[in-house]
């Protein structure tokens, strides 16, 4: 079973209050999404493998450890892009891919309309981002696409998670851990997370 990590960090909770506030404008919203994503990625990278190295300090040789993994950040278009910068702050050498999906109105199945990934993505630990894990349909499909490309290690990061989305991911992809800044109560009839924060994409990009 995949793990669901929900942050209880005071700084994240403080920032979540600002994100939820309908009076927070696009500039602040975008910045705070980036900050929360950065703080979450600190937790989501806790299990990365390390290797021993020796470093020459100005005084002596020091036994150190460095991350022994190739990393990639893959935002799901469009709202996932809002989290990329925050993750990059902690993982500046990570490669970045993008996945775009839409729901076919007839079959209701997610269809990939854009996919550009690092050529060696199969060898990388992928941090997949989407601020809102609502029904989980998009995230489930994006994880499936990454696995089809040979990716073995995937971590999913979101700002808000709903029980429906978490359940879907845990069922379909029990090997994928989920990191969320908050876990909300439910979805409403329009698929919005309640109490949520509204449409994350529109609030990040100021399109509403
Ligand atoms: N997507 C959003 O942007 N907000 C929600 O509440 C659910 C899905």
From TrEMBL:
Residues 6-207 form the Phosphoribosyltransferase domain. CDD domains: PRTases_typeI. It is an enzyme of class 2 (transferase). Uracil binds at residues 193, 198-200. Keywords: Allosteric enzyme, Glycosyltransferase, GTP-binding, Magnesium, Nucleotide-binding, Transferase. InterPro entries: PRTase-like (IPR029057), PRTase_dom (IPR000836), Upp_B (IPR034332), UPRT (IPR005765), UPRTase/APRTase (IPR050054). One of its GO terms (molecular function) is uracil phosphoribosyltransferase activity. It comes from the Bacteria. 5-phospho-alpha-D-ribose 1-diphosphate binds at residues 78, 103, 130-138, 199. Its cofactor is Mg(2+). Allosterically activated by GTP. Binds 1 Mg(2+) ion per subunit. The magnesium is bound as Mg-PRPP. It catalyses: UMP + diphosphate = 5-phospho-alpha-D-ribose 1-diphosphate + uracil. Pathway: Pyrimidine metabolism; UMP biosynthesis via salvage pathway; UMP from uracil: step 1/1. Its EC number is 2.4.2.9. Gene3D superfamilies: 3.40.50.2020. Pfam families: UPRTase. Signal peptide: none annotated. Catalyzes the conversion of uracil and 5-phospho-alpha-D-ribose 1-diphosphate (PRPP) to UMP and diphosphate. Belongs to the UPRTase family. This is Uracil phosphoribosyltransferase. The gene is upp.
């Amino acid at each position: 079973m995949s793990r669901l990590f929900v942050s209880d960090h005071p700084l994240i909770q403080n920032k979540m209050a600002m994100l939820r506030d309908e009076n927070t404008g696009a500039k602040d919203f975008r910045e705070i999404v980036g900050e929360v994503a950065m703080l979450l990625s600190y937790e989501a990278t806790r299990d990365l493998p390390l290797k021993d190295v020796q470093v020459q300090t100005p005084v002596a040789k020091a036994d150190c450890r460095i991350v022994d993994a190739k990393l990639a950040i893959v935002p799901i278009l469009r709202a996932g892009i809002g989290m990329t910068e925050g993750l990059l702050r902690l993982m500046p050498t990570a490669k970045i891919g993008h996945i775009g999906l839409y729901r076919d109105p007839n079959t209701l199945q997610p269809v990939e309309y854009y996919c550009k990934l690092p050529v060696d993505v199969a060898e990388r630990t992928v941090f997949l981002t989407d601020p809102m894990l609502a029904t989980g349909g998009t995230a489930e499909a994006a994880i499936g696409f990454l696995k089809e490309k040979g990716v073995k290690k995937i971590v999913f990061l979101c700002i808000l998670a709903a029980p429906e989305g978490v359940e879907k991911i845990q069922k379909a992809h029990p090997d994928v851990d989920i990191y969320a800044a908050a876990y909300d109560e439910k979805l409403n009839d329009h698929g919005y997370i309640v109490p949520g924060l509204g449409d994350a994409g529109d609030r990040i990009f100021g399109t509403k």
